[in-house]
C-alpha cells in the first residue's frame, strides 16, 4: 500500500469512528425522545424529574450528534481541497466523548435537568432539584465540547486562508466582484465550509462566554450578570450552531448528486452571492428567538422577522433548486446514498416553511414555545441533517469497499421518511392546538398527537438502527483490509 | 385562529414542495442533456426568485402592521387596567385576576428568579397572547378580552421540575 493510501486510510478511520459515535448517539437520543412522547401521550408514566432529565439528554445528544456528523462530512470533503489537521480532528472527537460522559454524569448521577437551551440563571437556581455538582458537570461538559469544535473551526479557517488567501476568498468574494473568473471560484464544499467556519466560530465564542458566566454564577451566586444579555448569547449560540449543521451536511449533497448525475455543481456567481447572504443572515436572525421579549430593541425584533424570511431564499432559490435541477432528467441511479441526499433536501426545504411562518411576530405571539417549534426543527434536522448524515455513511460504505445495499435498507429508507414526517407532523399539529413544548404532562386533548408521534418515532428508530447496522457491517468488512476505492483517494494517490 | 392560518399555510406550501420533489424524482429516470435544462430553469429561477422576494416584502409589511407590542388596545382617553405579574418557581403573583369583557388590560410581567413564559389560554385551551417573564426586566402584553369565561395562565418557558404545574386563572365577566 502506498504511503498516500496509508494516510488516507488513517483519515478515513477517524471519520468512520466519528460516524459510529454519531450513529449510536442518535439511536440513544431517539429512544429518550420516544419515551418522552410516550409519557406525554399518557402511555407510560415517569416522574417529572426523570422526564426533564430525558429532555436534557435528548436535546444535548441530538445537537451534539448532528454537529459531530456534520463536521465529519465537512472535514472529509474539505480535506480534498485544503490541508486539514488530523490531530485536531482527533482532539475534537476525544473532547466530544469526554463531554458526552460529563453531561451524562451531570444529568443522571447528579440530576441536572436544565435542558441544553437553559437560560441564565436556571443552572444555579433549580429550586433544589439539582445541586452545584450536577450543574458544573453539565456546564463544563458543554464547554469542553465547545472547545473541541472551536479548535476544529479555527483549523478549517487556517487551512482555507492558507489555500485561498482569506475567508472572503473562500466565500468567493473575488469572483463576485469580478476580479476572478467563475470557473476559478472555490468549489461548493469550500464555500460552505468557509461560511460555517465564520458563523460557528462566532456561535462558539458566544456559547463559551455564556457557559463560563453561568459556571461562575453556579460556584458563586453573588456573581450575577444581565439576564437579557445571557439570553441573547444563548440564542446566538444555539441558533447558529444548530443551523450550521445543515450548512455542513449539505456538502455531501453537493458532492454526491454531482457525482451520481455526472453533472457539474459549480459555484456560480449567484451561488456565491447567496452563500454570502446565508453567512450574514445566519449570524443576524437569532433575535427571532426573542420575539416575545418586548424589552428587546424593536429594530432587532423586526430584523429577526424580516431576515428570517430572507434567510429562506438561499435554500429555496439556490440550494434546493440546484438539487432539483441537477436531478431532473439526469438518469440518476438511485441508491441509499443518493436517495438520502435527495430526501435531505426535501426535509430541509419543507422544514423551513413552518419556521418562516413562526418567525412572524404576530404568529410567534401565539405559537412561541409550543410544539410547533420542535415540529419544524425535527423536519429540517431530523429529515434534513440526519438524512445527510446517513447519506454520507452509505456513500462511505459503498465507495470505500463497495458494500451492497439490501431490500432491508430500502425498506428502512421509507420507514425513516414516513416515520419522520409522522413525528414532525405530530409536533406541528400539537403546536397548532397550543400544546406547550417541554411539558412533562399533557392534558387529554393534547395526548393524541403525542401518541401518534411516539409510534412514528419507533418506526424511525428501527430504520436508523438498520442504517447503523449497515455501517457497522461496512466497518467489519473494512477491517479485513478491503479499502480504498474512493474516487478522490485514487485521484490523490 | 392565527394558529389555523399558520398550519394551513404551512401545509399548503409543504405539500407543494413535496409534490415538486416527487415529480422531479419521477422525471429523473429520463436522461437529457444538462445544458438546455440549465438554460431553461435558470430563466425560470429568476421569475420564481422575484416572486418569492415580492411575497416576502408583502407578507412582512402586512404582518409587521400587527405587532402585538404596538397595538393600541384602548381608545384615546380610556385608561387601561395595569396588572403586575411576577412569576416565581413555581407560581404566579398577579395583582388582579378578574376583568370585564371589553376592558383593556396591560400585563406588566417580570420574574422573581429564573425565566418563565406568561401564556394566556382561552376556554378552548388555545393561546391568545404571551410574553416572557424575565428577572430584572418587565415585558408588557396588551389584551382586551372579547369573551367571558375562565382563562388559564401557563408557563411557556422551561423553568425547572414543576414548570408544567405553574398554572393560574383569570376570570372575565
From TrEMBL, chain A:
<feature type="transmembrane region" description="Helical">
    <location>
        <begin position="51"/>
        <end position="77"/>
    </location>
</feature>
<feature type="transmembrane region" description="Helical">
    <location>
        <begin position="236"/>
        <end position="257"/>
    </location>
</feature>
<feature type="transmembrane region" description="Helical">
    <location>
        <begin position="12"/>
        <end position="39"/>
    </location>
</feature>
<keyword id="KW-0679">Respiratory chain</keyword>
<dbReference type="GO" id="GO:0004129">
    <property type="term" value="F:cytochrome-c oxidase activity"/>
</dbReference>
<feature type="transmembrane region" description="Helical">
    <location>
        <begin position="269"/>
        <end position="286"/>
    </location>
</feature>
<dbReference type="GO" id="GO:0016020">
    <property type="term" value="C:membrane"/>
</dbReference>
<feature type="transmembrane region" description="Helical">
    <location>
        <begin position="453"/>
        <end position="472"/>
    </location>
</feature>
<feature type="transmembrane region" description="Helical">
    <location>
        <begin position="89"/>
        <end position="110"/>
    </location>
</feature>
<feature type="transmembrane region" description="Helical">
    <location>
        <begin position="189"/>
        <end position="216"/>
    </location>
</feature>
<protein>
    <submittedName>
        <fullName>Cytochrome C oxidase subunit I</fullName>
    </submittedName>
</protein>
<dbReference type="InterPro" id="IPR000883">
    <property type="entry name" value="Cyt_C_Oxase_1"/>
</dbReference>
<keyword id="KW-0472">Membrane</keyword>
<keyword id="KW-0249">Electron transport</keyword>
<feature type="transmembrane region" description="Helical">
    <location>
        <begin position="377"/>
        <end position="397"/>
    </location>
</feature>
<dbReference type="GO" id="GO:0009060">
    <property type="term" value="P:aerobic respiration"/>
</dbReference>
<keyword id="KW-1133">Transmembrane helix</keyword>
<dbReference type="InterPro" id="IPR023616">
    <property type="entry name" value="Cyt_c_oxase-like_su1_dom"/>
</dbReference>
<keyword id="KW-0813">Transport</keyword>
<feature type="domain" description="Cytochrome oxidase subunit I profile">
    <location>
        <begin position="4"/>
        <end position="493"/>
    </location>
</feature>
<feature type="transmembrane region" description="Helical">
    <location>
        <begin position="340"/>
        <end position="357"/>
    </location>
</feature>
<keyword id="KW-0812">Transmembrane</keyword>
UniProtKB/TrEMBL annotation, chain B:
<keyword id="KW-0479">Metal-binding</keyword>
<keyword id="KW-1133">Transmembrane helix</keyword>
<dbReference type="InterPro" id="IPR051403">
    <property type="entry name" value="NosZ/Cyto_c_oxidase_sub2"/>
</dbReference>
<comment type="function">
    <text>Subunits I and II form the functional core of the enzyme complex. Electrons originating in cytochrome c are transferred via heme a and Cu(A) to the binuclear center formed by heme a3 and Cu(B).</text>
</comment>
<dbReference type="Pfam" id="PF00116">
    <property type="entry name" value="COX2"/>
</dbReference>
<keyword id="KW-0472">Membrane</keyword>
<feature type="transmembrane region" description="Helical">
    <location>
        <begin position="6"/>
        <end position="26"/>
    </location>
</feature>
<feature type="transmembrane region" description="Helical">
    <location>
        <begin position="47"/>
        <end position="67"/>
    </location>
</feature>
<dbReference type="GO" id="GO:0005507">
    <property type="term" value="F:copper ion binding"/>
</dbReference>
<keyword id="KW-0812">Transmembrane</keyword>
<dbReference type="InterPro" id="IPR001505">
    <property type="entry name" value="Copper_CuA"/>
</dbReference>
<dbReference type="InterPro" id="IPR002429">
    <property type="entry name" value="CcO_II-like_C"/>
</dbReference>
<feature type="domain" description="Cytochrome oxidase subunit II copper A binding">
    <location>
        <begin position="78"/>
        <end position="173"/>
    </location>
</feature>
<dbReference type="InterPro" id="IPR008972">
    <property type="entry name" value="Cupredoxin"/>
</dbReference>
<dbReference type="GO" id="GO:0016020">
    <property type="term" value="C:membrane"/>
</dbReference>
<dbReference type="GO" id="GO:0030313">
    <property type="term" value="C:cell envelope"/>
</dbReference>
<dbReference type="GO" id="GO:0004129">
    <property type="term" value="F:cytochrome-c oxidase activity"/>
</dbReference>
<protein>
    <recommendedName>
        <fullName>Cytochrome aa3 subunit 2</fullName>
    </recommendedName>
</protein>
<keyword id="KW-0186">Copper</keyword>
Amino acid at each position: 500500500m502506498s504511503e498516500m493510501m496509508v494516510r488516507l486510510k488513517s483519515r478515513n478511520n477517524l471519520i468512520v469512528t466519528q460516524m459510529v459515535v454519531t450513529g449510536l448517539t442518535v439511536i440513544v437520543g431517539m429512544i429518550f425522545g420516544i419515551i418522552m412522547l410516550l409519557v406525554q401521550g399518557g402511555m407510560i408514566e415517569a416522574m417529572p424529574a426523570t422526564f426533564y432529565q430525558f429532555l436534557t439528554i435528548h436535546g444535548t445528544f441530538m445537537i451534539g450528534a448532528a454537529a459531530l456528523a456534520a463536521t465529519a462530512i465537512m472535514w472529509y470533503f474539505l480535506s480534498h481541497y485544503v490541508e486539514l489537521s488530523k490531530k485536531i480532528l482527533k482532539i475534537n472527537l476525544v473532547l466530544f466523548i469526554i463531554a458526552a460522559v460529563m453531561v451524562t454524569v451531570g444529568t443522571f448521577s447528579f440530576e441536572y435537568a436544565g435542558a441544553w437551551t437553559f437560560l441564565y440563571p436556571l443552572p444555579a437556581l433549580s429550586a433544589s432539584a439539582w445541586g452545584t455538582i450536577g450543574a458544573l458537570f453539565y456546564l463544563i461538559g458543554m464547554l469542553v465540547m465547545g472547545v473541541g469544535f472551536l479548535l476544529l473551526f479555527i483549523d478549517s479557517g487556517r487551512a482555507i486562508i492558507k489555500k485561498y488567501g482569506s475567508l472572503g476568498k473562500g466565500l468567493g468574494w473575488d469572483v463576485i466582484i469580478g476580479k476572478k473568473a467563475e470557473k476559478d471560484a472555490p468549489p461548493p464544499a469550500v464555500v460552505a465550509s468557509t461560511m460555517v467556519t465564520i458563523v460557528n466560530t462566532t456561535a462558539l465564542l458566544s456559547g463559551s462566554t455564556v457557559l463560563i458566566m453561568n459556571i461562575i454564577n453556579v460556584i458563586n451566586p453573588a456573581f450575577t450578570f444581565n439576564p437579557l444579555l445571557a439570553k441573547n448569547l444563548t440564542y446566538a449560540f444555539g441558533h447558529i450552531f444548530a443551523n450550521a449543521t445543515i450548512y455542513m451536511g449539505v456538502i455531501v449533497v453537493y458532492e454526491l448528486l454531482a457525482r451520481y448525475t455526472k453533472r457539474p455543481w459549480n459555484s456560480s456567481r449567484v451561488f456565491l452571492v447567496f452563500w454570502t447572504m446565508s453567512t450574514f443572515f445566519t449570524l443576524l436572525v437569532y433575535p427571532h428567538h426573542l420575539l416575545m421579549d418586548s424589552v428587546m430593541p424593536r429594530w432587532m425584533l423586526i430584523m429577526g422577522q424580516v431576515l428570517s424570511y430572507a434567510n429562506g431564499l438561499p435554500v429555496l432559490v439556490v440550494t434546493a433548486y440546484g438539487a432539483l435541477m441537477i436531478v431532473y432528467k439526469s438518469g440518476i441511479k438511485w441508491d441509499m446514498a443518493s436517495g438520502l441526499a435527495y430526501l435531505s433536501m426535501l426535509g430541509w426545504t419543507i422544514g423551513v416553511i413552518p419556521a418562516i411562518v413562526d418567525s412572524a411576530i404576530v404568529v410567534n405571539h401565539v405559537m412561541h414555545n409550543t410544539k410547533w417549534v420542535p415540529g419544524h426543527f425535527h423536519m429540517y434536522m431530523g429529515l434534513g441533517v440526519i438524512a445527510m448524515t446517513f447519506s454520507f455513511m452509505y456513500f462511505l460504505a459503498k465507495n470505500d469497499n463497495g458494500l451492497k445495499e439490501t431490500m432491508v435498507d430500502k425498506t428502512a429508507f421509507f420507514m425513516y421518511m414516513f416515520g419522520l414526517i409522522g413525528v414532525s407532523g405530530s409536533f406541528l399539529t400539537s403546536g397548532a392546538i397550543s400544546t406547550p413544548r417541554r411539558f412533562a404532562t399533557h392534558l387529554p386533548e393534547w395526548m393524541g398527537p403525542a401518541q401518534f408521534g411516539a409510534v412514528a418515532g419507533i418506526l424511525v428508530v428501527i430504520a436508523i438502527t438498520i442504517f447503523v447496522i449497515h455501517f457497522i457491517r461496512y466497518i467489519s468488512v473494512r477491517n479485513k483490509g478491503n479499502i480504498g476505492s474512493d474516487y478522490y483517494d485514487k485521484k490523490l494517490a | 385562529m392565527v394558529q389555523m392560518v399558520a398550519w394551513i399555510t404551512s401545509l399548503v406550501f409543504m405539500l407543494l414542495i413535496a409534490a415538486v420533489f416527487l415529480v422531479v424524482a419521477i422525471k429523473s429516470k429520463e436522461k437529457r442533456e444538462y445544458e438546455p435544462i440549465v438554460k431553461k430553469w435558470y430563466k425560470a429561477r429568476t421569475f420564481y426568485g422575484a416572486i418569492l422576494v415580492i411575497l416576502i416584502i408583502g407578507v412582512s409589511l402586512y404582518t409587521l402592521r400587527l405587532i402585538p407590542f404596538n397595538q393600541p388596545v384602548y381608545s384615546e382617553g380610556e385608561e387601561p387596567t395595569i396588572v403586575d405579574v411576577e412569576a416565581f418557581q413555581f407560581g404566579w403573583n398577579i395583582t388582579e385576576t378578574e376583568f370585564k369583557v371589553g376592558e383593556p388590560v396591560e400585563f406588566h410581567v417580570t420574574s422573581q428568579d429564573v425565566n418563565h413564559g406568561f401564556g394566556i389560554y382561552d376556554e378552548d385551551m388555545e393561546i391568545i397572547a404571551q410574553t416572557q417573564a424575565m428577572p430584572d426586566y418587565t415585558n408588557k402584553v396588551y389584551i382586551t378580552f372579547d369573551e367571558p369565561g375562565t382563562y388559564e395562565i401557563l408557563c411557556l418557558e422551561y423553568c425547572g421540575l414543576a414548570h408544567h404545574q405553574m398554572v393560574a386563572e383569570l376570570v372575565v365577566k
